[in-house]
Each structure stands twice: as structure tokens, then as C-alpha cells.
Design goal:
15% strand, Rossmann fold, alpha/beta, single chain, seven-stranded parallel sheet, 8 helices
């Protein structure tokens, strides 16, 4: 029987922020494709509930990517317990919806620390093993906020725009060593973070759906299936891209 180029059997994926929302959708899709998954996040109970939902192919580790000192130990623990990391999905992130003039330095720094600095530190540590084995796929999660000027999310937009730039440089640095680096730019995907952002802002919600040609919101599984593609042999010649999964929002009027 011919193996599907989308088959991830035998692979181990590390998904940050994997307990809810997009991260959980990505973990589910990886498991459907045959991979084992380790999810991380800050809340043990949330992670344990997610692992029960995901089944025996999933494991979890409590970790806050903003805590840089914890990252080498996290990578070592995962690899000792589960084996080499074949796929890394940098999904963990925080947002802040606030007018630019009211954002404090501390608030701005907190967003950058989690969404950018911690992401880089984890990527560097995981990539060391991937480069040594000359194989691996790293997937960043960017945002529509990295593609056009969404109001009231200065810090978030800055972090995601930086991640997009980093994706391209990392692809240039790591791809000669067999490690592909790509990004997914989710559009407006149904998640606790999105619903919280839109529930108090009906005008913003109208704008979102109005400029999405396919209408409505996407589902976490839409991001999950895109991640499966980028992590799989089907994307063996794909690196350095930013793939919008947005129902056409980034080209809508």
C-alpha cells in the first residue's frame, strides 16, 4: 500500500499553547495524520483535559514560553520522554486590544516576550537537534495583524510582523540543513480569543465578516490541516512561506 505524502506516522510534534483553540485543533489534525503530539501551556488542568480529548497519542508538559530559563529543560524533557522532535508549532501567544496611546511599556514588553522572544528561544533549542539530524519542520503562527493595519493591537501586530520576518530568515539559515520553516496566517478563526475580542465590538465583527469572501469564521481544524500539509512530505519543497488560511480575508474588500 502506498503511503500518503500527508502521513505523519512515526513523527513527534511539539505544539505550544496546545490546550485550547488553534493549538488544540492543530494537535487533533496531527494525530489524525498519525503523529504523536506533546502539547504545552501554562495551565495543567487545561492540558490534562486536552490530552484526554486527544487520546493516547498525546502527552503534555506545563510550560510558559515567556520564561526563557525553562526552555532548554523543556526541550530536554520532551526528547528524553518522547524522542526527537520532528515538528515544532509555535502557536502560543497572547493579545492585547487597547488604543496605542494607552499601551504601557510593560504591556508592550509582555506581548513581545511571549510572542517573539520566547518563540525564538524555543525555536533555537529545538532546531539544534533538527539540524543535527538534517530533518525537521518548524511552523510559526502569524496573523492578519502582520498583513494589514488592524486597529487597537499595536503590540500584537508588532510581534506577529516580527515573527513573519523571522520565518524568512530562519528558512534561509536552516533549510540548507534540511529544516523547513514556514508560517500560517490564520484569518478570523473561531476561538476563545477571537470571540472575546469581538463580543464587545459588533462593528469590528461586521467588518471582519464583511471582507471575508467565504463568509463567517474559520474553524481550528482549518489551521490544523494546513499545519499537517506544511509538516508533511507533501510540502518537502516548501520553505519560507506565509500561508493565509483566512477565507479570503486578506484579499477581500
Amino acid at each position: 500500500m502506498t503511503t500518503s505524502p500527508f502521513d505523519l506516522s512515526g513523527k513527534l510534534a511539539l505544539v505550544t499553547g496546545g490546550g485550547t483553540g488553534l493549538g488544540l485543533g492543530i494537535a487533533e489534525a496531527f494525530i489524525q495524520a498519525g503523529a504523536r503530539v506533546v502539547i504545552t501551556g501554562r495551565r495543567l488542568e487545561v492540558l490534562q483535559d486536552a490530552c484526554k480529548q486527544l487520546g493516547p497519542m498525546a502527552n503534555c508538559q506545563v510550560n510558559d514560553v515567556a520564561d526563557l530559563a525553562s526552555i532548554p529543560d523543556l526541550v530536554q524533557t520532551v526528547q528524553q520522554q518522547s524522542g526527537p522532535i520532528d515538528i515544532l508549532v509555535n502557536n502560543a501567544g497572547i493579545n492585547l486590544k487597547k488604543h496605542t496611546l494607552e499601551v504601557t511599556d510593560a504591556e508592550f514588553q509582555a506581548i513581545i516576550q511571549t510572542n517573539l522572544v520566547g518563540l525564538f528561544a524555543l525555536t533555537r533549542e529545538v532546531a539544534k537537534g533538527m539540524v543535527e539530524r538534517r530533518a525537521g519542520s518548524i511552523i510559526m503562527i502569524t496573523s492578519m495583524a502582520a498583513m494589514y493595519g488592524l486597529p487597537l493591537v499595536t503590540a500584537y501586530s508588532a510581534s506577529k510582523s516580527a515573527v513573519l520576518g523571522m520565518t524568512r530568515v530562519l528558512a534561509s539559515d536552516l533549510s540548507p540543513h534540511g529544516v523547513r520553516v514556514n508560517a500560517i496566517a490564520p484569518g478570523f478563526i473561531q476561538s476563545p480569543m477571537l470571540l472575546k475580542a469581538l463580543e464587545t465590538d459588533p462593528e469590528r465583527k461586521r467588518k471582519v465578516t464583511g471582507r471575508t469572501p467565504l463568509g463567517g469564521f474559520g474553524q481550528p481544524s482549518d489551521i490544523g490541516y494546513a499545519a499537517v500539509y506544511l509538516a508533511s512530505e507533501a510540502a518537502r519543497f516548501v520553505t519560507g512561506i506565509n500561508l493565509p488560511i483566512d477565507g479570503g480575508n486578506s484579499i477581500g474588500f
